[in-house]
Every structure is written in structure tokens, then in C-alpha cells.
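Bumping my old thread because nobody answered last time. Still need a sequence for this structure:
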């Protein structure tokens, strides 16, 4: 039986970290936490309330007065609740995609959401994915991974996901958006996107989801039994 360690999975947009983290959690019987969904929820609320994504004080106040929960739906999929409303689909809208990195760079927003995320992992047994989990949120996590892939492969994955949701975009447009998100996330002053110290970097460009999942679960099972 795998002991209830915490697993941090970081990576840029389109690296496959959400699918991998969700599958790893299911395989190990751990809680899956999508921190990006929390930033998306704050971004959605900011858009709904007409708050400027450059207004740091207003965004920090917005995060503090928002209730964000994650729970398993009837089919086992993650449901994201914002102020008791199901926003699972709404937070994936293109307007949210375009603004979430701007909201996520705000120190006050990051500090508030990180505290919530740390509370979720207080008892262990959590697979948490995002962009600063191993570096800032759970630096003491027993296992840290950083997933990446080429911009072209990440754009292909994101494009397929968007097409399935009914968005009509071109691959070059998606590549441009991904690289811009990479730039904002990597250059922000607070908790920039980068591999955590001691993290295992996995380039998934030529790997299947199952192969990446197996790399992670094998590493955890090898050291986490007892």
C-alpha cells in the first residue's frame, strides 16, 4: 500500500499535467487538486464583475471574498464550484484563457490561493498540479515532477481540446497563445514557472499519457510503500 505522500506536478500549458495528475491520483487513490482551475475561477469572477486584470488590489480582494471548491462529479470528473455555483465549463472559455496568466501573476491572489492549497494537502495523499506547486505551494512534497513538451506538441494537444469544445482556432494561433502564456508565467515576479529543486523533468513530447503516468506511479510506489 502506498503511503499518503504529496505529489507536486508542475508544467506549462498543454504539457498534459492535468490529465496525468488526475490519472495518477485515481490510480493511487489520492485526492486530485487542479490549482489552475482556482486561478481560472478568480479570473472568471473578475470578468463577470468587470474588474481590470491590472488592478492588483481589486483582484486580491476578489480572491479573498470568493469561495472556491473542487469536488468529484457523478462520473468521477472534477467539478469546480465558485460561490456554490458550478463553473467547470465556464472557466474554460477563451476569455478566461486570455486573462488567467494576468490574474495569476498578482502576489495577493497567489498568496491567498496558496494558503487554501496548502490546507488541502495538510494530511497528505494529494496529487496537486499547477505552475508553482513544487517551488512555492508544496516545496516539501515528497515527490516533485515537471512536465514539458515542445511548443508544437503542446499546441497540438491544446488545439484538439479546444476543437472538441467547439472552438475554431488555427494551430499557429494556439502556438502564439501558448508561448505568450509561457512568457508571462516564466517572467512574473512572484513564483515564476520553473522546475522545482529536485524535481524530475519529464519531456512528454513523444510519450503517451499512460507512459508518463507509469513513470510517476512507479517512482512513488518504489519509495512510498509501507
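Sorry it took so long. Here it is:
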Amino acid at each position: 500500500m502506498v503511503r499518503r505522500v504529496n505529489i507536486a506536478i508542475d508544467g506549462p500549458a498543454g504539457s498534459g499535467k492535468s490529465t496525468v495528475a488526475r490519472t495518477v491520483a485515481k490510480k493511487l487513490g489520492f485526492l486530485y487538486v487542479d490549482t489552475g482551475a482556482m486561478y481560472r475561477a478568480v479570473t472568471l469572477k473578475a470578468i463577470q464583475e468587470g474588474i481590470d486584470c491590472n488592478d492588483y488590489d481589486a483582484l486580491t480582494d476578489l480572491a479573498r471574498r470568493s469561495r472556491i471548491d473542487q469536488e468529484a462529479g457523478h462520473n468521477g470528473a472534477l467539478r469546480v464550484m465558485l460561490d456554490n455555483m458550478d463553473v467547470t465549463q465556464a472557466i474554460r472559455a477563451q476569455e478566461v484563457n486570455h486573462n488567467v496568466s494576468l490574474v495569476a501573476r498578482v502576489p495577493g491572489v497567489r498568496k491567498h490561493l496558496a494558503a487554501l492549497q496548502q490546507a488541502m494537502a495538510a494530511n497528505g495523499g494529494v496529487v496537486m498540479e499547477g505552475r508553482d506547486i513544487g517551488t512555492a505551494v508544496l516545496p516539501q512534497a515528497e515527490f516533485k515532477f515537471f512536465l514539458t513538451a515542445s511548443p508544437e506538441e503542446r499546441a497540438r494537444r491544446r488545439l484538439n481540446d479546444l476543437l472538441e469544445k467547439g472552438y475554431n482556432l488555427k494551430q499557429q494561433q494556439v502556438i502564439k497563445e501558448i508561448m505568450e502564456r509561457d512568457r508571462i508565467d516564466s517572467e512574473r515576479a512572484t513564483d515564476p514557472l520553473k522546475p522545482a529543486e529536485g524535481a524530475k523533468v519529464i519531456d512528454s513530447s513523444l510519450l503517451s499519457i499512460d507512459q508518463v503516468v507509469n513513470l510517476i506511479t512507479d517512482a512513488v510506489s518504489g519509495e512510498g510503500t509501507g
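The first strand starts at residue 6 and ends at 10. Let me know if any region looks off to you.
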